[in-house]
Design brief:
166 residues; mainly alpha; two-stranded antiparallel sheet; 4 strands; 7% strand
Length: 166
């Protein structure tokens, strides 16, 4: 079941233990059996910015689909929108790659392992974005593949790990 934007905000307030405070200060108002967000509450959470972020990440389903059984032939490589969304938001802020680059690089990555006949080595979608190593540091295969994608002029040509075309 998908939650509405306002249901997510409500749950966030509950998690942060601020719900009672917002009700007592009048930021959330109950009329009959329905709750309303006051303009002040919407200003505090910067709804326009939050909605823009949601809209900007609307392509995540397309990203996740690239890791689906239908696309790669094996199960267990997709991730939830929540898992991917959290990491992708951070990734975009850190690396500033655009959607076309991210999706193109992901295609290169998936096709690389499919052509090798080794789709089992494809990481789960959220681990492809960021993965914590055994030593505690983080690595991003997505960043590496985005750089390769851009180095190749944004083409979807396949490269092996040693830089040569496949």
């Amino acid at each position: 079941m998908k939650l509405t934007f306002y249901e997510v905000l409500w749950k966030l307030l509950q998690k942060e233990r601020k719900l009672e405070e917002w009700v007592s200060t009048g930021l959330l108002v109950k009329k009959e059996n329905e709750w309303f967000w006051t303009p002040e509450a919407l200003e505090i959470v910067d709804v326009d910015k939050a909605l823009a972020l949601v809209a900007d990440l609307s392509w995540l389903d397309q990203f996740i689909e690239k890791f689906s059984r239908k696309n790669i032939g094996i199960v267990g490589k997709t991730s939830s929108v929540k898992q991917v969304g959290e990491k992708m938001s951070r990734f975009i802020k850190e690396y500033n790659f655009d959607t076309e680059t991210i999706l193109g690089a992901t295609d290169m990555y998936v096709n690389h392992w499919k052509k090798q006949g080794s789709p089992q080595y494809i990481r789960q979608a959220h681990y492809f974005i960021y993965k914590r190593t055994e030593r505690g540091s983080e690595t991003s295969d997505l960043a590496t593949w985005c750089e390769t994608y851009l180095k190749d002029g944004g083409s979807k040509k396949q490269e092996n790990r040693f830089g040569g075309d496949l």
